[in-house]
Design a protein that fits this description.
This protein is mainly alpha-helical. It is built from 18 helices and five strands.
């Protein structure tokens, strides 16, 4: 029995068909549908056929990257969040999309000669979601830049060593997870200290780029196409050589972020123990369920620390409500979250900023009393 998904050649065309025909949104949607059909069942061969067939049809390589592959990768994330894809399936789908990008990059339709400057593209240290950065690197290459793509999880010292060996006009840093923002800040500052401007992007920096500006990045872009457009406008402004991280975030002087980060493991253990009394259902959990609970608590502490670093209570509240939705989608009671936040608040009663952040998170979890709301209107 074959696991290959049926490929519809009527869209992808053949090498003998004329290239360059107009491609509209319906065609892009159909291509994305075909690619999704393939990656959702881990059919790498058909996925690559869809991508290469689109190029043979005359679809622009940039459109295949951003309007097809990136769109499908977004759906992969949505399906995982809705618990319609397992972690393993999500990883497999992402890996296939990455291989599809590699296949596209080697196709004659995507071959270009550098005519612009040099850009280094990398993910911040601890960031394993490399596909957004890879898509940007390929788009910049298509637009004539010489690109050094360094991949996932690049420690700042290695990034700086690379910049010393090359003559990059700018660094493009990608991060998808907000808890990587303190590390991103260090990388931004380190690059700027040697005179290299930094453009940042990715979900971690907020949909409006608020954290990019807070961390004093030289530019921000919401997506790869916008990033390439910004770099095409002209050189990024040269950064100040004397810029320090504390210049951007003076509230860190209270040491709450530092102390909580250093003691995160003991905090997780203390809250885990307290939660067994405050949430009796935990006593019936299996060993794997207990392990996942400990992991969830560690994520909560990580996001609390990040909110303290940024001075943004809404970041934590957004994470907590997202966590509640994820737990609900997986059939796990989100009712465990309020007692967990309460236990954490007790442990951090002498940390006023942390207390406020936890209170904001608890408020975000409180159901709205619609009858009261209606009576006020």
């Amino acid at each position: 029995m074959s696991t290959r998904t049926p490929h519809r050649p009527s869209l992808a065309g053949t090498a003998g068909e004329p290239a360059g025909e107009p491609v509209g949104e319906p065609v892009v949607e159909q291509l994305a549908g075909e690619l999704w059909d393939a990656v959702s069942v881990a059919d790498e061969y058909t996925a690559v056929e869809v991508v290469l067939g689109a190029l043979e049809r005359g679809v622009e390589p940039e459109s295949v990257l951003l309007d097809v592959i990136a769109r499908v990768q977004g759906k992969v994330g949505e399906e995982w969040a809705a618990d319609r894809l397992s972690v393993a399936q999500e990883h497999a789908a992402t890996a296939i999309n990455e291989r599809a990008v590699a296949a596209l990059a080697l196709h004659p339709a995507a071959r270009t000669t550098p005519t612009r400057g040099r850009i280094t593209v990398a993910c911040v240290d601890g960031e394993w979601h490399a596909l957004p950065a890879r898509l940007l690197a390929e788009v910049l290459t298509l637009r004539g830049w010489q690109v050094d793509y360094l991949g996932a999880q690049v420690p700042a010292p290695h990034l700086i060593a690379h910049l010393h060996r090359t003559d990059s006009d700018a660094v493009a840093l990608s991060s998808s997870i907000a808890t990587r923002l303190p590390t991103a800040h260090a990388a931004i500052t380190a690059c700027q200290a040697i005179g290299v401007p930094v453009l940042v992007g990715g979900a971690a920096f907020g949909p409006d780029g608020r954290y990019a500006f807070l961390l004093d990045a030289d530019a921000w872009a919401p997506d790869a196409r916008s990033a390439a457009d910004r770099l095409a406008l002209g050189p990024l402004p040269r950064p100040r050589a004397d810029h320090q991280q504390m210049d951007d975030l003076p509230h860190l002087a209270d040491q709450e972020y530092t102390l909580i980060t250093r003691n995160s493991a003991s905090l997780v253990r203390a809250v885990f123990t307290a939660l067994q009394d405050a949430f009796p259902a935990m006593r019936t959990y299996s060993e794997p369920q207990l392990e996942r609970t400990a992991e969830d608590l560690a994520h909560i502490v990580d996001f609390l620390a990040t909110a303290l670093y940024l001075g943004d209570e809404d970041l934590f509240a957004g994470f907590i409500t997202w966590t509640a939705r994820i737990l609900t989608a997986r059939g796990v009671p989100a009712s465990s979250l309020p007692p967990a936040l309460a236990a954490l608040a007790r442990e951090l009663k002498d940390f006023p900023r942390a207390t406020r952040v936890l209170e904001r998170g608890a408020e975000a979890l409180t159901p709205v009393d619609h009858s009261t709301a209606e009576s006020r209107s």
